[in-house]
Design a protein that fits this description.
Oligomer: single chain
Distance between the termini: 42 Å
Number of helices: 19
Strand order of the largest sheet: 1-19-18-21-20-17
Helix content: 25-40%
Largest sheet: 6 strands, mixed
Number of strands: 29
CATH topology of the largest domain: Rossmann fold
Radius of gyration: 28 Å
Shape: globular
């Protein structure tokens, strides 16, 4: 079996897979479609086209936002960096769009009119149908500033304020600018993170991205491009294709029509004996993976196993041994580390890639395409409005107007586009454009008492908000006093990570997000300090909070400490105990559970084990 050191990144294999054969004699310009091809095959074709491009680049058109992000994630695993252009629906005059979505949209258009154009762009049918701003208007609104440029900081800030930027003390939101002497903090309206510009005399001496939470510079970028204007004031009369110019090829994965033409072209030139196809879990299991792999090897195929990390890659090798492959056969297998969620085979080139996500039954790759990546960290964007979160008649809350009854989505009288309809007291009704849906949320209260509806233009909601803000301030003051008292108490300083810690963490089957990595690092740093740790890990369901706790638990046990994990419900305690046992199954860690699901004698045994030290972790 290949040793772990021989495992490679998937992108390192690209030059050895013969992708140029797939398109070398078929790319003649025009539009190709492959809707009826499996998803992984569409990705492979897009990769082959962009790697063998003869023109400016390739535009890939998919049906939905989900298809767009899945294709981007797969292409990213192959080493590409595609540009995603989001769908941007704007309402009537004065309607505010979601600032995150608007920034992503404007940033994508800015890249398309810039000097360094992307070579691969993925859009949805909605983007193709929608009218876009004139490319020349976007180009004229962009301003590029580089280190060494002569610029008056005071005049620069005044110019930004004139075109719509807001002057503040601390920059936290897009469209804000702050100046402190020869330092200017700026959050461009089309960017994901703010930047800090420092002057030396009358020239820009440094440009760095800012960690928005710590307000410190985190990485030199050398230049900054900002949009000097209001995106919502740009008239949308142009087609998206106006941004591409000449020399671009197009691959359409959402409309049938020319897929047969492309496949016939492949067959005519003898490039493949059968279409590129997906090698999915269901098919693999039907044919018994071991026998299928043996047959591929016998026919001289390259069989490549893709794991999401080192631990999963090693498990795939072990799994193949369990499929009764001989040591010689396992030795012929190739292992790569990538985020591929689906396998793909190309019979014409005699190779197949099998994804660990499918073989091991892991339904999610843990590597969703993350938009808005930057040196200053990754930011999860607010999703578009989901009408499934609210049902007709539910109580909803508008950030500015208070509690109302949700009446559904519909067109506002007068034709201002699709809106969320909210009914207030005394027959008042508010139409919220979907672009401002981030201002609306489901009402969550304590108990079964129905909330009182607010009145549009009334003062009750403002008074309630002011009262809540005051209570929060008082509570914060109490927490501050408590934290100060804790700082003075002595604590336990844990040693650095045990030699087993890295091995244990590599077994995690998902790729940790940037926020997860940061939370894990901060937690370990706290544990190694002498003062008591006081850290709260926040995140939505499924975002990886438990893994942070599991790694901290392992570190504690390796340091000879016992760990108690408290859960809010009995069912959750049972789930945590099961997950911990599974994660610690290969390690000398004893996990027990204390809940009403255990008998009195079982609970007594667990308590005894905690007392004598034979139990390392107890969940209750």
């Amino acid at each position: 079996m290949q040793k772990s050191g021989q495992r490679r990144e998937l992108k390192e294999l690209c030059g050895t897979l013969g992708l140029n054969q797939l398109v070398s004699r078929t790319v003649e310009g025009g539009v190709y479609t492959c809707r009826e091809w499996p998803g992984a095959a569409q990705v492979l074709l897009a990769l082959a086209l962009v790697r063998n491009r003869t023109g400016s680049g390739w535009l890939v058109v998919v049906e939905s936002v989900r298809d767009q992000e899945e294709m981007a994630s797969e292409l990213e695993a192959w080493g590409e960096d595609p540009l995603l252009v989001p769908e941007m629906h704007r309402g009537g005059e004065g309607v505010r769009a979601d600032p995150d979505l608007e920034a992503e949209w404007l940033g994508a258009l800015a890249r398309l009119v810039g000097e360094r154009k992307p070579r691969l762009v993925i859009i949805t049918e909605g983007v193709l149908r929608a009218k876009q701003p004139d490319p020349n208007a976007v180009r004229k609104g962009l301003r590029r500033i580089v280190i060494g440029e002569g610029l008056d900081p005071l005049k620069f800030v005044e110019e930004l304020v004139e075109v719509g930027y807001r002057k503040v003390g601390t920059v936290t939101e897009r469209g804000e600018v702050a100046r402190r002497g020869g330092i200017v903090d700026l959050f461009p309206t089309q960017a994901d993170v703010p930047v800090r510009m420092e002057w030396g005399g009358d020239r820009v001496e440094s440009i760095r991205q800012i960690d928005i939470h710590e307000q410190v510079g985190v990485g030199e970028v050398g230049e900054v491009t900002l949009f000097c204007g209001q995106a919502n004031q740009l008239p949308c009369r142009s087609d998206f294709l106006d941004y591409l110019g000449s020399g671009w090829g197009t691959l359409t994965c959402s409309e049938s029509g020319e897929g047969e033409r492309l496949q016939n072209c492949f067959t005519r030139h003898g490039l493949a004996s059968e279409p590129v196809r997906e090698a999915g879990l269901a098919e693999a299991r039907r044919r018994r993976v071991g026998a299928e792999v043996r047959a591929w090897l016998t026919r001289g195929w390259r069989v490549i196993l893709s794991g999401i990390n080192q631990g999963e890659s090693e498990r795939l090798g072990e799994w193949m041994v369990e499929c009764d492959l001989t040591e010689e056969e396992v030795g012929k297998l190739e292992f790569v580390i990538s985020g591929l969620g689906r396998g793909v085979a190309w019979p014409g080139a005699k190779w197949v890639i099998l994804a660990g996500a499918e073989i091991l039954g892991r339904t999610e790759t843990g590597r969703g395409y993350r938009r808005g990546k930057s040196l200053a960290g990754e930011k999860w964007k607010r999703p578009a409005f989901d009408s499934g979160e609210l049902k007709l008649g539910d109580y909803a809350v508008h950030l500015q107007h208070g509690v109302a009854i949700y009446e559904g989505l519909g067109d506002k009288p007068g034709g201002a586009g699709q809106c969320i309809s909210l009914q207030y007291a005394n027959g008042g009704r508010l139409y919220v454009p979907v672009e401002e849906s981030y201002l609306v949320s489901r009402y969550v209260g304590v108990g079964k008492k129905r909330p009182q509806l607010d009145t549009l233009g009334g003062g009750r909601w403002e008074r309630a908000r002011a009262k809540a803000e005051k209570a929060v301030e008082e509570f914060a003051a109490t927490l501050l006093r408590t934290a100060a008292e804790r700082e003075a108490l002595p604590g336990v300083a844990f040693p650095p990570d045990h030699e087993w810690q890295g091995k244990f963490e590599s077994e995690f089957v998902y790729v940790p997000t940037g926020d997860q990595v940061r939370a894990i690092g901060d937690t370990k740093t706290d544990m190694e300090r002498k003062r008591p740790m006081d850290r709260l890990i926040c995140g939505d369901v499924g975002y990886g909070k438990t893994e942070v706790a599991i790694r901290a638990t392992f570190k504690s046990v390796m340091a000879g400490k016992q760990v108690v994990i408290l859960a809010p419900t009995t069912v959750l305690a049972q789930q945590h105990a099961r997950n911990l046992r599974e994660r610690f199954s290969d390690w000398p860690v004893v996990v027990e559970e204390l809940s009403r699901f255990r008998t009195a004698s079982e609970q007594k045994t667990v308590v005894k084990g905690v007392a004598d030290g034979s139990v390392d972790v107890v969940v209750g």
